[in-house]
Amino acid sequence: YRGTDVRETKLSRQHMWEENQLNKAVIKENLDEVNLPDADKYDFVFDDDAMIDYEDNEEVMPEKDSEYDNHLIERLQKEQDRITSIQEMRKLLPVYSYRNALLEAIREHQTLIVVGETGSGKTTQLPQYLLEDGYTKGGKLRIAVTQPRRVAATAVAARVADEMDVVLGKEVGYSIRFEDKTTEGKTVLKYMTDGMLLREFLEDPELKKYSCIMIDEAHERTLATDILLGLLKDILPHRKDLKLVISSATMNATKFSRFFNNCPIFNVPGRRYPVDIRYTVQPEANYIHAAISTVLQIHTKEPLPGDILVFLTGQEEIESIKEKMEQITEKMGSTIAPLIITPIYANLPQEQQNEIFIPTPHNCRKVVLATNIAETSLTIDGIKYVVDPGYVKENSFVPSTGMTQLLTVPCSRASVDQRAGRAGRVGPGKCFRIFTKWSYYNELELMPKPEIVRTNLSHTVLLLLSLGITDLINFPMLDKPSISSLSKSLENLYLLGALNSKGSITRLGRIMCEFPCEPEYAKVLHTSATHDSCRGVLDECISIVAMLHETKSLFLGQKSHPGSHIVGQVDSDHMLYLEIYNEWRNYNYSRIWCQDHKIQYKTLCRVRNIRDQLFKCADKLGLVAVNETVRREMVDPSSHLAAKITKCFISGFPMNVAQLGTTGYRTVGKKSTSGLNVYVHPSSVVFHQTRDAKKPSKHVLYQQLMLTSKEFIRDCLPIHKESWLGEMVPQLFNFSKKS
Ligand code: CDP
Ligand code: MG
């Protein structure tokens, strides 16, 4: 199973590092967060010792020219300063020369696969061509374009609205979870995450509102994209007038074609300049340091202009590297040219996202610190250098334990090649790989694993069941998930009460589908309004659930312990989040209050918005009314609040419970053997309690399990009474009967 494969690969790389790093400091392989001690932070000096050795004999990723008229890019470059009209820009993109041929192919075939180099104009141009060709029937029908990532959906919609000179949210809009920027009856071109289109199937199983669907970035093979392709394959024969365009970077195209009865593949030839690939001579123990050094090496040694793109695994890593680089460049002062450091990741506030697209001023260099969002979804002009440590963060579900882990794993060869290609868009480029040539040829897998074979399928299974698709085994899929993973999700859904013992969807299961959040959270909310022993806390649970969706970007800065005035009063992260939200509300949603407490104002505004949506949904389902009745009967709503909330979360996340043993916490599942040793993350309130020598609770519920240097559990909630487990989920925790 992939989960173990990955670890083995990682371990063997680690082993190599260790072998080769005898003279270097202790291996610090805290890949997820760069919690380097302060001294280390300030000691990092960029000098000859810090230089990373790269092999001299570089490989060259060859130029790609084909039949494409390569004068276009050159003209684009020469005229870039001169071109003022965005319409002229559109005509210079590679897809433009194929506009008519593409439209003809789409007219002729119901399904078409479009393959082209990143940046050739597939995402921004193709939907506009369809619009211009009259597919929306004067506004009666719509065109949907799906994206695997939220950031891509919003950024591209904004760009296209610009190109069409319309206000974003009117003719052109986007829809991502908890944020709908479209106008009913007006929006004809809708960019959306693949997950949102999946939800639309619930209300409109034949997608009657749409005349064209473009599944973009299909090569990413997210779970939602794979399921969409299966559902679309199902409805195409009944909807002869519906056009399906599947667009993909260069990998995987024939697989899609085979899946859709050998439908044609349209190749948009693109130009790519040669890219020199450099590998490190030795494996590097600390890729974070190596990446920083490499960026500075490039900056001081390579000529201007030429921006740098660094591929990192996540927000925390990006923010901490940014902070560190700022300190170093500040120290180096005017001895180096100005370096503009811009991050890009999914949770970055919109205004900051746009910064990556601002052209770099002369005599400066821009370094973009990106997650693999910049691999294919977003094209940043002006990149000449790519720095690639070769890692990516992946969800990984282990059916035997029923647990999902977030792992930092080595990328596939296809991914690192795609990343290198990003350096050759505007001219010859260079790619610095922070791993060895040996590792590339011997350790990296060829292709990334599709999400469907490595993730928890519960949500998807529930959605398919509610769409009436009961034969899951024969549902058309590009790659089939394992039987064990399917049956684990059925078991999980049964445990939540979404399915009955015959495997059919229950009334509760349908309610869970209605909520715009994971079924587990929906179960928490349902319990909080209706369960005999803990109802009346719906409002509080909605706040906590909304906060849990945004915890990644809640606090400002890396290490400051936020909300510290509250920390002392609560004993769980859940209650901390609730208190933070309530206090902010009491201060009239104040921006100043956020600044004072080092909390991101924008994030809390998003939480407020999510809260509103969850509340509306609960209201629609009648849960709010039920909750209010109970609340009026309660003598003191604040009594037993924490206990009730804990019970609600147990009902939604019975699988996420760890039990204290002789060696610390161990996860509990159906079988006692399936446990895994886990550690409370230092960012958790519960961590501080154990450190302050309070007696740790025998059981703890967690929202996230991350595998980095250790198995960390985050967002933790102590369970003070063992009997609550058996009370809420007797099917799983029958041991409580004994006590
Ligand atoms: O989808 P594909 O990778 O083929 O290309 P695209 O995303 O449609 O991008 C086409 C062009 O639009 C690129 O040259 C980008 O630089 C530009 N673009 C932009 O300037 N700003 C955006 N937010 C998106 C695209
Ligand atoms: Mg694209």
Automatic annotation (TrEMBL):
Signal peptide: none annotated. Residues 103-269 form the Helicase ATP-binding domain. The keyword Nucleus applies. One of its GO terms (biological process) is mRNA splicing, via spliceosome. Its EC number is 3.6.4.13. The lineage of its organism: Eukaryota, Fungi, Dikarya, Ascomycota, Saccharomycotina. One of its GO terms (molecular function) is RNA binding. This is RNA helicase. Its main location: nucleus. Keywords: ATP-binding, Hydrolase, mRNA processing, mRNA splicing, Nucleotide-binding, Nucleus. It is found in: Nucleus. It catalyses: ATP + H2O = ADP + phosphate + H(+). GO terms for cellular component: catalytic step 2 spliceosome; U2-type catalytic step 1 spliceosome. Residues 294-468 form the Helicase C-terminal domain.
